[in-house]
């Protein structure tokens, strides 16, 4: 299942997620953390990239940004290659530091901006690196302390963030802090880490209702937003990207899912029959995990429908999704 080209138009709002290879740490000490943060800010200024929210954890990081004229890929390449090279020299290691390509989701600003800022800044609390919101206020490795004016980063656009919460700075900070407290009670919110039909319109029940009404919704796994937003983004994309859109009808989805199974099996050099045999070989389990995630979270298939396509039990499909949501 080949990965599509990125949607990388300048001025696009992206939720970027990057992880250490094999879930290993990407920072070892505070010198690494300082290098990561300083490099992110410096390259952002040099490329005209605007940073709104960020959080650096031990083995992954989140960034909410608006790409500059050079696009997202230039910013990420310069930041990550420079950081990885310096990390390897400091720690006398070789090889890749980050897991494959970073993940970037184009986001509908008016619908998701406030929630994304809160989601990203709450990551240290969610990961157990701090014990409370009070501790988060002093956590130095996220943009939250900058929004709260505990620390200063000239490259982080806190004014833009605070304008979503109020016109006067004091009121806006209070509203922002209260909003974080509300969002902290909502759990992991996996819909904010990806695109696709289920995430964009509010869950599987919404997808079922849409289909009962025989409605169609434009969707793309790289975009978090409603159908009109997805259409607008894709209309502005290159022709090679446009060809990958999905107008979701059940027949088309089934055909697309079957193609996904065949494409991924070809890529991984396994037979479709072998994949559907029920074998628990680790490589086959990994392929099933990828397909279950795509079918349920992007295409909106039920667990039962996904299970039928992959010849697994409904409970197995549900367990895979539960584990993904707890990562």
Low-confidence stretches: 1-5, 196-218, 238-248
Total beta strand runs: 7
For CATH, the homologous superfamily of the largest domain is named as Transposase IS200-like
Q: What's the number of structural domains?
A: 2
Largest beta sheet: strand ordering = 2-3-1-4-6
Order of helices and strands: EHEEHEHHHHHHHHEEHHEHHHHH
Query: How would you state the average pLDDT, rounded?
Result: 82
Distance between the termini: 22 Å
Output the radius of gyration: 20 Å
- Report helical residue fraction: 40-55%
- Principal-axes geometry comes out as globular
CATH C-level label of the largest domain: Alpha Beta
Strand proportion, as a percent range, falls in 5-15%
> Which structural class is indicated by helix and strand composition?
alpha+beta
Quickly give the CATH architecture of the largest domain.
2-Layer Sandwich
Q: What name does the CATH topology of the largest domain carry?
A: Alpha-Beta Plaits
Counting DSSP H or I runs of 4 or more residues, the number of helices is 17
Main pleated-sheet profile: 5 strands, mixed
């Amino acid at each position: 299942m080949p990965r599509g080209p990125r949607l990388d138009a300048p001025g696009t709002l992206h939720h970027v997620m990057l992880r250490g290879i094999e879930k290993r740490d990407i920072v070892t000490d505070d010198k690494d953390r300082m290098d990561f943060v300083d490099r992110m800010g410096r390259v952002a200024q040099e490329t005209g990239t605007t940073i709104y929210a960020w959080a650096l954890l031990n083995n992954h990081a989140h960034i909410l940004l608006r790409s500059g004229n050079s696009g997202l890929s230039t910013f990420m390449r310069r930041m990550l290659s420079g950081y990885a090279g310096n990390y390897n020299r400091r720690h006398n290691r070789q090889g890749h530091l980050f897991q494959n390509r970073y993940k970037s989701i184009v986001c509908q600003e008016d619908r998701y901006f406030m929630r994304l800022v809160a989601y990203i800044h709450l990551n240290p609390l969610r990961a157990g690196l701090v014990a409370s919101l009070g501790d988060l206020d002093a956590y130095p490795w996220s943009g939250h302390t900058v929004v709260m004016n505990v620390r200063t980063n000239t490259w982080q656009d806190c004014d833009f963030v605070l304008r979503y919460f109020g016109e006067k700075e004091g009121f806006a900070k209070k509203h922002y802090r209260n909003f974080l407290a509300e969002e902290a009670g909502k759990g992991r919110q996996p819909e904010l880490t990806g695109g696709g039909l289920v995430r964009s319109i509010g869950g599987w029940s919404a997808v079922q209702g849409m289909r009962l009404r025989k409605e169609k919704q434009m969707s793309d796994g790289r975009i978090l937003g409603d159908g009109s937003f997805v259409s607008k983004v894709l209309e502005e994309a290159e022709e090679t990207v446009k060809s990958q859109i999905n107008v979701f009808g059940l027949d088309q989805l089934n055909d697309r899912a079957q193609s996904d199974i065949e494409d991924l099996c070809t890529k991984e050099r396994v037979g479709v029959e072998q994949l559907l045999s029920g074998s628990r070989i680790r490589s086959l389990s990994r392929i099933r995990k990828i397909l279950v995630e795509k079918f349920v979270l992007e295409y909106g298939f039920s667990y039962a429908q996904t299970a039928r396509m992959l010849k697994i039990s409904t409970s197995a499909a549900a367990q895979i999704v539960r584990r993904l949501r707890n990562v």
